[in-house]
Amino acid sequence: MRTASLRADILCLITALIWGFAFVAQRLGMEHIGPMAFNGIRFALGAIALAPLAVRSMRYPPPAPFLVGSKDGFPWIGGAIAGAILFTGASLQQIGLKYTTAGKAGFITGLYVVLVPLLGLFFGQRAARGDVIGAVASAVGLYFLSVTEDFSLAPGDGLELIGAVFWAAHVLVIGWLSPRTRALPLALAQYAVCSVLSLLCAFLFEAVTWEGVRGAAWPILYGGLLSVGLAYTLQVVAQRDAKPTHAAILLSFETVFAAVGGALFLDESLGGRGLLGCCLMFAGMLAAQLWPKTPGRPGA
């Protein structure tokens, strides 16, 4: 059991590393192609990489008799809903990365951890004390990280913040869909929908050229095969054996790896004020995930 738990923790950390460094790949890719084209191609690659596992999972009985929008067990309607939300969040994140750093984008995107329980209030879920503390700490951290001296939100950070709301909504939707359908076909469907919507926008609003795609080949391969395809699979495998608290802490390091990757490969610097903001936001994320719940009181 200890060996399995240790292996799961290592896989969670590798997943966080891949996701964190993906912010670097996303910025580098946009030196050659537009944000919609980048997302469209990378999610298509992620869907292709995941397809064999998704097809294989169809051999086994479904987790529940109610399959959302399924035909022979494939969740197209559920995937379309999740894919549309994923498309919105990914688009805002990718466009925002044109105007902010990879490190800041990583930390602001990570706010979805705090936003999930807060959005849950609209569905009758009660927020725990740690959720409230995490929200306050993250809000103060966001101020130090992103708000300029004239009290305006720095360019790009606002888009990342709105995107975090959609990432939180995506978590809630996936949380509702997962017990009602198959996980891997659902992931495949949402990636396919996100790719189609992104490519449609790319051909309508961007100048997509073969030279640009070739120039962004390595960032696209990283974002598609590693960040979307491999990391998702590693997360699923890891969380079979990982303790929930361990997984929460280790996956939160995605934000830290985004800042490290930005410093190593893009010469980005957060400065003292930005580092203080990052520390407060990271503490808020951990508080929201790890604060003990009061027994007998849902969400308290």
How large is the count of helical segments? 13
How large is the radius of gyration?
19 Å
Query: What percent of residues are in strands?
Result: under 5%
Largest sheet: 2 strands, antiparallel
Helical proportion, percent range: over 70%
Q: Can you list the strand order of the major beta sheet? A: 1-2
Overall mean pLDDT: 84
- The low-pLDDT segments are 295-300
The coarse silhouette is: globular
Gist?
Helices cover 73% and strands 1% of the residues. It has 13 helices and 2 strands.
Q: Which key features would you list for this structure?
A:
two-stranded antiparallel ribbon; single chain; 300 residues; mainly alpha; disordered C terminus
Describe this structure in words.
It is a single chain. The chain has 300 residues and is mainly α. Helix content is 73%, strand content 1%. The chain contains 13 helices and two strands. The protein has a two-stranded antiparallel ribbon. The chain is globular and about 50 Å long.
Topology:
Layout: H1 2-29, H2 35-57, E1 70-71, E2 74-75, H3 76-96, H4 102-109, H5 112-119, H6 129-146, H7 157-177, H8 183-205, H9 210-215, H10 217-238, H11 244-252, H12 254-266, H13 271-290
Antiparallel strand pairs: 1-2
Helix pairs in contact: 1-4, 1-10, 1-11, 1-12, 2-8, 2-10, 3-7, 3-8, 4-7, 4-12, 5-6, 5-7, 6-13, 11-13
